[in-house]
Amino acid sequence: MSLGLWRDARAALAADRFALGCLAVLATLGVAAIAGPWLLDYREDEIDWANMAVPPLASPGHWLGTDRLGRDVLVRTLHGLRVSLAIALAATLVAVVIGVAWGAFAGYRRGRTDALMMRFVDVLYSLPQVFFVIILTVVFGRSPLTVLLAIGAFGWLTMARIVRGQAMALREREFIDAAIVGGATPARIVVRHVIPNLAGPVIVYATLTLPQVILVESFLSFLGIGIQEPLASLGNLVAEGAAEMETAPWMLAVPAACLMLVVFCFNFLGDSLRDALDPRDR
Amino acid sequence: MSTLLEVRGLTVEFSGQRALRAVDAVDLRVAAGERLAIVGESGCGKTQLLLACTGLLAANGRAQGSVRFEGRELLGEPEAVGAARGRDIGFVFQDAGGSLTPHRRIGDQLVEVAELTLGLSRDQARREAAAALERAGLPDARSRLAQYPHELSGGMRQRAAIALALVARPKLLFADEPTTALDVTVQAGILELIESLCRDSGMSLLLVTHDLGVVAALADRIAVMQSGRIVESATAAEFMRGPKEAYSRSLLESVLTLEGVA
Fold it and tell me: What's chain B's Rg over C-alpha atoms?
């Protein structure tokens, strides 16, 4: 990966104050999600019998109130954020690794190999994801791992398509011929000469995949086929909150605001990265 | 002089909606230490000739005939081609700047070639890489190793690309329009470099170009190619004095001079 390219991209990002703000918000939320639940006075599944469904700031220690079972909303939201972020990061990593390897190989080999590999992607694309998740939860039971598996199984498809197109274009460039003349094997060419050139689009797409995964996971959890009580994720917290919307609106507002903030920041950061890494501006 | 490269009846065809014969029964021979230039207009098949000899034809291309390097058949022999190219035959591409992978350090690319073609250890390969850059006339070879292609100027990138072809100290250099993408002053420097490399190391050259100025500076012998065939072959001196074929004459006459303008 090119230091020069990164230097340019960093300079472009540093000049983009809104993107920097998003990065700062995400970093803060990330640290809070990891450290918060340890620093605060309550555990995410701890019931405070004396303070049930108290609104924010009404009771000492419960800054953002409690839910109907007397569990601290702030702690549960941070805990849910941690689960959601962990699943998003893991699923995105799966998508990047499988998608890049699959797409780069198919695009480099072209011909029949490429046709077979990409038709397989098309077939997976045409499967309805929600049914697939339901089947998975029936088979493996409801756990974060099942959710990860379900999202990961589909997340790499778009990445593979993007990477394959880029790899096909790169393949026609002269440096590939030069590498062949230099004695590099096809595997080596894919790893050393094709994939490093894909860093820009891959990073941008990964940044845009993260919020997508968070939304899918939230959607699945909202439907009740994702993360399950007593584990919290932003999705099932929003679902719980929605049920109490009229009596305890803070139960909906806190996790929903957190979800929106995270998704917004990732999306905006992805767009800014796309601008910063755009090869046409290089 | 012993024959280094011998091409006999080489025919290159491309399949597709309209089948195309790019190279038609070409015979040619490059002796050790000889510099042969193939001249011809765009699309006459000269680049495909080089690609066919090194097994780099596009997927829909097919080559027939015989290409022998030091007596070993290369055509249709992937292992022989793999062993010869890089090590015995260096290749400088048309857009030499484009033959460097943009996201990798120049040093890494040179070291990779040295390791793969010469089987050197990393330390030895690093020394060879620096030496190749020096031979290619890049000042400050050591610090260039750490740079990325886009940090060099067009001429320096061309020199780095030539260094890439020179790492293994090949006996024969294929050069496909090595100066076309460069401006005139830089062209002169690159031509001088190739000339001195051939002179100092006794390396043979198979040069493909449409620029007769380049030919005059570099070649011992000239082969004129027209729609896939070699129509005339002569020593450079003979050719410049007076080509026999009408097509060669028209090529020579089409060179722009300043005389008519003033």
Answer: 18
